[in-house]
Amino acid sequence: MISTLIIMSNATLANPTISSLILETGRLIRQDFRRRAQAHGLTQAQWSALAQLHREPGMTQTTLAERLEVHPVTVTQLLERLVKAGWVRREAHEQDRRAMRVYLDTKAEPLIAELTRLGTETRERALAGITPQQRQQLEALLSQIKSNLCDA
To answer: pTM for the whole thing?
Structure first.
C-alpha cells in the first residue's frame, strides 16, 4: 500500500507515470484472474503459491515466502491449508534439516490445468487488440525494466 502511494504520488490522473500504469495494470490483471478463479474457492495467496510451485517445484518455504512477499509464518499457515487440501506436500531438505522443500501433489494437476486456462483467458483479454509484434516488444521492454531493477 505504501509503495502504491509512493509510486502514484508523482502521477496525476491526466498524466500517469509509467510506474503507476504498470502497478495499476498488474492490479487489474490480478482482479480479472481472481474473478475467473473465484468458483474454485481459492484465495489469491493460494493460487499464487500454487503457480510458484508449478514454475519451480521443490523450492523451500523461505523462498516461497520471498516470492509471495509475505512473512515466513504466513507462508507456513498457507501451506498447512494447501497440504490439508491435498494440493501440496512438504519434504525434508536433503542438505538443510531446518528447511522444507515444497512440491505440488498429483491431486493439484487438474487444478493447475484449470488455473493455466484461466490465466490464458485473462492474458488474452488484457492483450486484446495488441499485435504479436507489439506483444513481443512489450515483453522485451518489461523484461529490460525487470533486469534493470534486479541488477540495481
So the answer is: 0.76
